[in-house]
Write a structure and sequence with these properties.
Layout lengths: L1 H59 L6 E12 L10 E2 L7 E10 L6 E5 L6 E2 L6 H8 L5 E6 L6 E3 L4 H30 L22 H9 L1
Helix pairs in contact: 1-3
Length: 226
């Protein structure tokens, strides 16, 4: 009787450990799946709004030394055909029917004046509170306005009023590197929990015993005579 009761206790303890392990695995799986889904959703939301403008600004290669800018002309346009570009637009997904185009000239270092167009950023659009087109137009949208600006070394006809390379790098890091890192860690964790991630070892074929040489009739007669 004592032996049977001890065996039952061992079986119950093993079952409890198995149930606890299953619950822990379930909770970890739910947490990792939530992190993976959240990271993927964050990428879908953050890439077009923040990462893409920051990467485009880095590719434009703005000169870190500000130049002197003067607004020469302001065009207030109506119609989709006339608003192929705008100096500032709140919202980047819809087409603009009404737009303001600012033409400026800038002087970098000791060079002559160059014509350019002024954008609020490299895309010419954004979302509040980062982009406020009303304040932008009040500050730069009148003829004769003077202000520092940054010109693009990739396209010398594009200038922006503010620029910080460190800020753009930080934006790319926050919006791309962090979600990708979290999603990658969550995916690796799910793979380690539920998949056989380690490569299988190939089984070596069993070695065959060496074949004995076949003796001809002459060889057998020689062995017999010996």
């Amino acid at each position: 009787m004592r032996g049977g009761s001890s065996e039952r206790l061992v079986v119950r303890a093993s079952r409890r450990r198995g149930e606890t392990r299953a619950k822990l695995t379930r909770y970890i799986t739910i947490s990792l799946a939530a992190v993976l889904g959240g990271g993927s959703s964050a990428l879908l939301f953050l890439v077009p709004l923040y990462a893409d403008p920051a990467l485009s600004a880095l590719a434009a290669d703005f000169d870190p030394v500000p130049a002197e800018c003067v607004t020469e002309r302001r065009d207030d346009r109506l119609g989709l055909d006339n608003c192929t570009w705008a100096s500032c637009r709140e919202g980047c997904t819809s087409d603009a029917y009404k737009c303001i185009q600012l033409h400026v000239k800038y002087k970098a270092y000791v060079e002559d004046w160059r014509p350019a167009v002024l954008y609020v950023n490299i895309k010419g659009c954004g979302y509040p509170p980062t982009v406020n087109c009303e304040n932008f137009t009040l500050n730069y949208g009148y003829v004769g306005a003077r202000y520092p600006c940054f010109w693009s070394r990739a396209d010398t006809t594009v200038v922006v009023p503010t620029w910080s390379r460190g800020e753009q790098v930080a934006t790319v890091t926050r919006t791309l590197a962090l979600p990708l890192f979290l999603s990658g860690c969550a995916g690796i964790g799910l793979c380690a929990l539920h998949c056989e991630c380690r490569p299988r070892r190939r089984r070596r074929p069993p070695r065959r015993p060496p074949r004995l040489p076949t003796l001809s009739i002459d060889d057998t007669t020689v062995y017999r005579l010996a």
